[in-house]
Amino acid sequence: MGTAPVLTAPFAFTTFHVAEENTMALVALRNVTKTYPASERGGSPVVAIDDVSLEVEAGDVFGIIGYSGAGKSTLVRLVNALEPATSGSIEVDGREITTMPERELRGIRLGIGMIFQQFNLFNSKTVWANIAYPLTVAGASKAEIAARVAELLEFVGLADKAKNYPDQLSGGQKQRVGIARALATSPRLLLADEATSALDPETTQEVLELLKRVNREFGVTIIVITHEMDVIQSIATKVAVMDGGRVIEHGAVFDVFSNPQNPSSRRFVSTVVKGIPSPAELAVLRERHEGRIVTISFRDGDASQAAVFVALATAGVEFELVYGGINDIQGRAFGHLTLAIRGTDAAIDTVLAEISSRVDVTEVA
Amino acid sequence: MDRLFELQGEFWVAAVETLYMVALTLLIGGLVGLALGTVLYTTRPGSLLSNRVVYNIVNVIINFFRPIPFIIFIAAVQPLSRLVIGTGIGNDALVFALSIAASFAIARIVEQNLLTVSPGVIEAARSMGAGPLRILRTVVLPEALGPLILGYTFVLVAIVDMTAVAGLIGGGGLGNFAQVYGYRQFEPVITWAAVLLIVIFVQGVQFLGNWLARKVLRR
After folding, report:
1. Chain A residues touching residue B113 (CB < 8 angstroms)
2. What's A129's domain CATH number?
3. How far, in Å, CA of B13 to CA of B215, rounded?
4. Average pLDDT over residues B129-156
5. Residue A122 to residue B120, Cβ atoms within 8 A
6. CA–CA distance, A40 with A43 (Å, rounded to integer)
7. Are the CB atoms for A82 and A191 separated by under 8 Å?
8. How far apart are CA B15 and CA B199, in angstroms?
9. Please, which pLDDT band fits residue B132 given cuts at 50, 70 and 90?
10. Domain stop point among A237, A270, A303
């Protein structure tokens, strides 16, 4: 929060607070459910969100990950009341929105930006008019709109594209327009619904960097919906894993990545983190390497890693690294390294006992 | 050919009458149809202002009138025409009947074209706090403008076609001209002259419509 916001918030409707002033959660969901009526007569209603409670603190980049159909897109639409919740309580910025009349909800939505997988730009309007649209809805004056749109175009690096139409832009440029449009009314909260899923890896990184800047420079809280764990890895500070309409695990990204508690979370984590080798991978390792195969799990430990290797080197055993890697999440390292260790059984047992006091050791084969 | 030369005056009068009927019908039917189609679109289940009762009423009315052959419809609405515009015959009576028929046809075309607007774009506008009527006016209609222009072009050609039966209730126009001076007097040249002018007119309209739509769609 050290950097002052670059953009000024020149409108009466903006509520720009710095995160530290507000210890209350920006978004709080309590026992929220959402059911849709049965699609056919006599069928049972579809439960899209099942008793979800979550808090998003101001300043967070909060990731929600899950497979398609897990309910994450529905969940995010409850937060800006694009869909009404069936039961439970949703507070945004301290205001209960589930009981709010539609007219008032429009005011709430003005203070929440949203970006989409398919960008959802207005094809009949220029880039400039797309970004100006929410400002017109908010009732800003012509001069205010012109100043704000110019600022935003500059911020997303598309000042030269103001007069272009969306179908003249690349996917990454379109999403940058989407971001500028979502930020136009200086919202405190930005909802990103699979915002990078239609983009190639390189453009994805560009857009994620831009979102990071939005969070850092303007203190905008971001809720990121994705099915890609590397998106969470690169920008989120906290993460919730959804499955079957429920939040099955949530916490700091580092904790969930380094020590996932749930099988579904583990599957997601395994897409970006090489953990303990699977039985099939073990069979291959077994064939190619002699000795005992051991996986050592490091949690937040560059120091413990050095100590482990010193212990191994002085124990009179031979070892080689056969699988795994070290990951960096928000400046903290963790990972799983699988070693093939050769030597006398006694020597290996001694050294494993020694290092297991520092780190988790699993003998896998 | 000589006969056509003799009837030159009547020919151009007929052409102007056709233009008059088409333009007036397009204006009235176009506006009423746009309104009806927009009501259909906005009140359909799951749409901006979904209202099952209104949707069903408008839907049933349109479905009731649409299948009636125009040549019968003219006779059927003649009493109503006398009541509303004071006459049941002539070009204006035809415009009256044709405007009603065109409204229903246009309503369907408008509804279909508005439905092509991506729900995601509407959701984006909602997420910015825009209300239903604003979304309709500033998002749905502009986004559907290209297809709407093509739809209206299509309807306009159909309207030209339908004005040809104006003679039935004492109206004029190129259709009547071809009937009276061409077909009934065994003068194929006259018939073909009227046909040629109609074809030129329709081609011109279609070209203009395509050009406008392309300009709007920027493709």
Report:
1. none
2. 3.40.50.300
3. 34
4. 95
5. no
6. 5
7. no
8. 12
9. very high
10. A270
